[in-house]
Every structure is written in structure tokens, then in C-alpha cells.
Amino acid sequence: MTTSIITHPYPISGPYMDAGKPAWRIASGYHSRVIGADGRYVGSIRPYPGNLQVKDILTIPGLSGASDFTAFRYALLQKGTTVYYCRGFIVRCTISSAVKLLFIYYDDQTSTWGYYEIASGVSSTASISCASNGRWLYVAVEGSAPVVVYWDTSASALTKATMGPIWETADAPALVEDTGSYQLPIGSYDVAYRFYDSTRPVYSGMSARASTTTTTASSRLEVTITTPTGADAFDRCAIYRTISVEVAGALYDCGILYWETTVSRPGARWGATVVGYVGTMSDTALVQQDYYDPEGDAAGTPPTSGAIGFYQGTTFMADAATTDGGRGRLRWANLYRTDPENFPTRNTSSGSPTDGQVQAFVEAGDILYAFTACSVWRLQRVGTRVALARMHYGRSLTSPRAAHAVGQDVAVMTPSGLGIINGSTGDLQLVGSVDRIILDDWKSTLAYVESAYDSAMDASFFVNTATETAIVVWHVTKLATLLEDCAFVGVTSGPSPTVGGASRAYFLTSTGVILTPDKDGTGSRTMNGLTVTPLATDVWGACDEGGTLTTLTDSTRTFTAQVVGCYVHVYTASGWVRRKITGYTTHAVSFASAVTVAAGDPFVISPVILRVRFKPLMSLLQEQVDFERVIVKGLSAILWNGTGYTDNDSAIATFGVYRNASSTLVGLASAPLDDGNLSVYVSADGRVVEPCIEIRAANVNYELTSFKAEATITVSNKATD
Predict the structure, then answer these.
(1) Alpha-carbon distance 285 to 48, whole Å?
(2) 694 in any annotated domain
(3) For a disulfide at 51, which of 22, 270, 341, 529, Cβ 3.0-4.6 Å?
(4) What is the mean pLDDT of the chain?
């Protein structure tokens, strides 16, 4: 039997994680798992800076009773023609037993938060998406007619309307010839009309045509329109006519309808009839006016699939699966007019049933991507046409929120792994360093992944709302790390609601708190953005008493309602134990499932968990690996630039090892972070032993610069446990 005593310093050149290979196959300098690290920095390992609270929805007047938040989408709209915006989020929640869809927004004119109810009785599982078009916010809910929300300048308030034309056809007008000094020569004419909203804009379908032949030169036509039901939704009526051409002494009708005149709605409602006139403009002038394209301008109602995107002035949607040929079929609005709510029948792709229904649109650079269940389509506007190309078949995103733009590229979670679609070539490059997280740990919950990009951090967040963990891709360093305690129900991204600017990532908790990554580390360095400066709640404590308890009490600490819904971690004789807080008093937090603690055991609320699982010690000899038995004796670490340790019960580091590819940390020992030079005695053995350091702390910062393991490696055929 051969025995070697080694002291192995681990190189820490940054948070380099390789979770794509077995631990004993990863290269030197990489780590089996890196959780809770700030991947913007290399040369050491720094903790993720935590999150900041953007807004607690329950503090908005009228929403204190909101609960059960299940959807979260960034949204904004311009307040009419002013320079001000309402920026915020579409959320789905329950209020007074009704499931409602709300627009939660910050009005930068009044510097106040508010909300607008978009719908009530919404399905709690329906897919929801939205798209902003300057003054108009389009909201699509699966199975329902999409809605447009906009600022009503006359009422100085938000309002809504059903998106798209209210009807597709209307009755023909009545025509009477009126003689005088007008512009119509003797001839045959067609007249038709359609209503439109000069604010949104949206048009009705064109009416049936009325035909007549004039008998007097220099006449005009009096046009009498019986207004249809629903016309009050529009404030203008556009009246069109054809021209009449004389060729070789014969009169010929022309089929093109030209927009000659407009009648405004008198007040808030139309009368029973509308009277207008055509023939006040000569044919020479008329043919230079806007004309009606019976194919491109034909009114078509928007689809109801729940997927919507706005790209280069045009609205894109997808037919619902219940629509004839709906699976995989794309539709888009008028490409050569400002008519974003009208979906002509010719603006349709053939699609394929094998593609599946479109789940999401993502605009990246000058490309719009349409993700179906089975394919990725690339859409590009070319003049008044849309060029479509299927870039990938057989693989796509795992959920409607699992893709987002990163510059001209797209980061996407696919069933085969996390990938980046190159905006220039369309190639999909997988991030192999997280494969085992996705294919093993997340394999049954990929449908719960939501994602967002944060430009201030230059990071893509892929949050699994079922496992409450996240993969973070740090584009600036090309690294990937993990986060734990991501107790979020929704993830989205967009400019700051209060100041606009760069796109940020946002997270929504189950209690209605909106968070964003604390890029500068100025907050409490907690996952739930708890407010500690000025002191609003303590985020750590030490147990006043021991026992099997559902309440942890520290009479020297003060807790507030912020902590409800957060996780509390308590360090017991058996290691760290985690519980979700369901209630609080001034000096205590409570939860549902009891935990056994001793007096003095430290606990921390919503900490940033830093855990580094190092490369196995057994692989160091590179010989007789199958018969090595590793006995770890001691672990040491050095932390630099530490802050926040004073009077902080959570400022401790835990050491241990993972034995034989287990997920349980054993051989536990702890040390305070006080002086930054940490060393503990550890007794644990195994065939494959991965040393680990873990810090579950709040309101602290540091840099892990060195780590060392001391062990005995024995070559023995009896290494079986």
C-alpha cells in the first residue's frame, strides 16, 4: 500500500466553472461548480452583488391586496405626443379572487407609480406577451383578442381598446348628384368609405361600393353614410372614389379607389348618418392622393395566439393553434402604411404543422426571430416585403420566455443546452460549460426557464422558477456561473422604469417585489434586495433559544414585513438548513417546517450564497486513479478586501468536501471571516473528493484569492466507500 501526503494549492484565476464534464475530467484552473460569483471579474472570485428593490407592487395605492403573481413582462408607452413615458411591467395577479392583468408603471411626468387594469378573469396559465410601439402598447393574451393600451390626452388617463379593425365590411353609401361648379365630368364612378382612428391609427374595412353615372358636367356627389354599430370607436370617416376616363369617345370605369375627403366625428358620437361630398377635387389631383389597395389594405383581425412582436414599424403575430393552418403560421401588419393593427390576409406565411405554434418573437439587431416549438425562423424586412428563412429545425426554445437579444445575437435555452444564435450567420453555438446543469439538474423543469439580459452587467440570466436556481452567462469574460435562492416567479428586461436608459434585468418575487441586479453593490447584498440602509430590517441574527422550532428569535434584531417570502438559512450542528419565511414579529421570523437548532446558532435572511466546488484531489497523481483513497485533513482559504464583517452573525465560511460525486457536503467545519485568513481541520475521505468553501452571508463583500487542501492519498484495493 502506497501513501502520499500532499498539500495542494488550487489556482484561483477567476470563477471558471466547467459543469459540462465529470469533475475528474475538468482542466486545471477550472472548478466543478461556481455558485454566487460575480463573473465580471477575474483574478479572484468575488460574490454576486445581490439585487436591489425597484418597487414593491403592494405599496402602489389600490394593490395592497394583490397576490399570486404569475406573469411578468416589461412594457412602456409614450404619453400621447409629449416627451413623457409610462414605463413598467405587465403582471398577472389575483385581486379579490379575480385573476387580473395589470400594467404597473412609473409616470416620469408626475414621478409616481400607478397601475392600469387591462383585463379581468384572465386564465392563470395563458401565454402573455406585449410589444411597445411608441404611443401604443399591444398586449396579447392566448385565447383572447389582443388589446392596445394608450394615453388618452382628452381624459389625461390611460385607456384601452380591442386591437385591430372592429368590423371588416360595411354597407354601401347612398349617392346623389349635386350640380354646380365642381370637378366631376360626366362619367361613371364608384364611391366607398371606411372609418379610422386618427390617434392610434386603426382602420375599419372598406365598405361595399356604390356606383353611379353623372349626367351633368362639373358636378359632385353627395355621399350619405349610415354609420354602423361600433363606429364611435373611430373619429374620422375617409371617403374614396374612382375616376372616369374617356378613351376614343367612350367612357371607362377605373377600379382604383382614391381617398378624396374626410369627415370628422361630431363630438363623442356619430349621428345616425354622415354626409360628405366627393368631386371637389379634380381627377388629375386625385390620382396623386392615397389609394386603397384591396389586397394589402383589406382589414384583417389580429391573431389570438398570445405571441406578439413589433419590428421596424410593423406588428408581427402568430395564428392560434385553433385557427385553420394556425400551427407555425406567421402574420404581420401592413408594411407600407402606418397601420400596425391591421393584418391583411396576404401578409401570411405558409408555415408548417411540424414547426408547431409560434411561442415568442425576439428582435436582435435588424432581425426578428420567431421561435416555434420545433423551429427558429429568421424574419427580415426588405422594403415592403418580409424575407423568411428557417434557420433551425428540430430545436428551439424550451419556454416562451427562454430567449432574449444580446446585441445582434440571441441567447436561448434549448432542449440540448444553452446556446447563442449568431446574428450574422445564424449558427447556434452551445455553452458547453453548463451542460450537466441543464441536461441533468434541470431536465424535467426546462419549461419553467425565463431569461433576461442586463446590459449594465453584460450578463444573461436564465432563471429556473421551479428549482429557484439560475445560470448566468457573463459575456464580458465569456464565463458561466450559477445562482441559488432565486425565488422569482418572473424575469424580464428593459430600460429603467424611472430614468430609462440601458436595458436591465428584472425579477419578480411571489410577494410582488420587483428586483434588479445591484451592479454597483451599494445595497444589502441580498437576493431579495432587503433594505438595511437606512436600517429597515436586520438580515441576520443568532438564535436566543434551542429546540425543534418553527420560529427563530433574536431579541437584539429587528425584522419587518420585507422578510416574508425570503429564505432564512440557519447554521446548525448538521450544517446549513433553509426555510422560507411565512411570518414575522419584531424580533423573530417564522416558517412552516420545524428545524432543530441550538442557542447561539447563527442565521441569515436572503443571503448571496457563494459556493466553490473545487476540482477533485484524487486526479492529482494521474496514476492508479481507480484505487486512490483520499483522506482530507485540512482546508484553508484567503479572503482579501473584506467588508461588512462587524456585528454580522452571518460572516462565516463553511468548509467541507463532496464525496464520490455526491451532492451532500460532509466533513463540515466553519471559520469566521474576520481576518480573511481561514483555516479549518476537516476529516473526510472518499475515492473522488472535491473540497469546497461556502459563504452564506448578507451585506458583506470580499475576494477569494487562495484555497489550499491538505490530504493523504492512499493507493488501496479497498477504496470502496
Answers:
(1) 67
(2) yes
(3) 529
(4) 91
pTM of the model: 0.92
Q: Which residue has the cell 470580499?
A: 702
- Answer yes or no: do 616 and 569 share one domain: no
How far is the C-alpha of 634 from the C-alpha of 619, rounded, in Å?
18
284 and 197 in a single domain? The answer is: yes
**CA-wise closest residue to 656 among 624, 625, 689, 629:** 689
219-226 sheet: strands from edge to edge: 174-184, 219-226, 273-278
The answer to whether the CB of 515 falls within 8 A of the CB of 506 is: yes
What is the predicted pLDDT for the residue at 155?
86
User: Which of 266, 292, 318 is at the close of a domain?
Assistant: 292
Same domain, 218 and 284: yes
CA–CA distance, 686 with 664 (Å, rounded to integer): 13
CB distance 405 to 364 below 8 Å: yes
Q: What is the 3-state secondary structure (H, E, C) of 215-274?
A: CCCCEEEEEEEECCCCHHHCCEEEEEECCEEEECCEEEECCCCEEEEEEECCCCCCCCEE
> How many independent structural domains does the chain possess?
3
- CATH code, domain with 707: 2.60.120
What pairs with residue 445 in β-bridges? none
Give a yes or no: residue 620 inside a domain: yes
Same domain assignment for residues 553 and 663: no
Which among 583, 606, 629 is the end of a domain?
A: 606
At 243, the amino acid letter reads I
Q: Which residues form the domain of 621?
A: 2-30+610-715
Tell me the pLDDT band of 255, cut-offs 50, 70 and 90. Answer: confident
Which amino acid is residue 450, in one-letter code?
E
pLDDT confidence band for 140 (50 / 70 / 90) = very high
Give CA torsion, residues 155, 159, 165, 171, to 10 deg: -40
Q: CB–CB of 477/14 below 8 Å?
A: yes
CATH of the domain at 602: 2.40.30
CA–CA separation, 291 vs 337, rounded Å? 11
User: 342-359 as b/e, with b when 16 or more CB fall inside 10 Å?
Assistant: bbbeebbbebbeebbbbb
Residues 604, 587: Cα–Cα separation, whole Å: 13
Nearest to 315 by CA among 129, 481, 184: 129
- Return all residues near 310 (Cβ < 8 A) that are at least 6 apart: 131, 132, 133, 138, 316, 340, 363
> Residue 248 — very low, low, confident or very high, per pLDDT cuts 50/70/90?
very low
Query: Do residues 627 and 579 share a domain?
Result: no
The pLDDT score that the predictor gives to residue 623 is 47
Does 525 map to a domain? no
Neighbours of 196 (CB within 10 A): 18
Q: Are residues 587 and 620 part of one domain?
A: no
